[in-house]
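Entry for the shared binder. Reason: the reviewer on the internal report wants the predicted structure included alongside the sequence.
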Amino acid sequence: MISTALGWPGSAFFVAGLIHDIGKLVMYMTFPLEFSEAADRVKRGEEKPFEAEKNAFGVTHEEVGAMLLKRWMFPENLIAAVQYHHRPRQLKGDFRFPLVVYAADVLAHLNEIAEEDQALDPGLHFFDPEVLELFQAYGLIWDDSVLERLSVNLSGQKEENAEVLNLFLS
C-alpha cells in the first residue's frame, strides 16, 4: 500500500515486509528461553526492545536478519530493509526500502493497538519526525488523513484476506 502510494513497484517491497523481522525468528529458534525472557522485560517496561536484544544477545534482530540475508546472498535493497527498518535515516544511500518497511511496521502495530484499545488515538505522534521528513523528500506528505486512509485500507485487506490467513493458522 505504501510503496504503491509512492509510485514504487510493490513486489520487492512486499517481500521486504514479509522478511523484515526474520532476525527475531532466528533469535527465537536459536535461543527460545532467552528471547522469551527479553520479550517479557519489554512487556513489563523494564527495557526497550533494542536494549533487551542487545543485553540478551549482543546484537539486535535487525543485525541478525541482515547477517542471514547477506549469507543467503539476498539483494542489497532487501538487506537494507531488514537492517534499517527501525532506523531508516541511518542508511547511507537509497533508504526507500527501510522507509516503507518502517512505515508499514508502525502502521501494523498501530492497527493492533487500536484493536486492543479503542480509546487510543493512533496518530502521527507514533512516527519518528525525521522519518516523516524522509517521506516528504519522496513527495509523500504524511498527515492524519493519509494515516487514516492507510489504516482503513489495512483493515479492509485484513478482512478480505482473513479466510486465507485462517487456512494457514488453523
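Summary line for the report: The longest helix spans residues 144-169.
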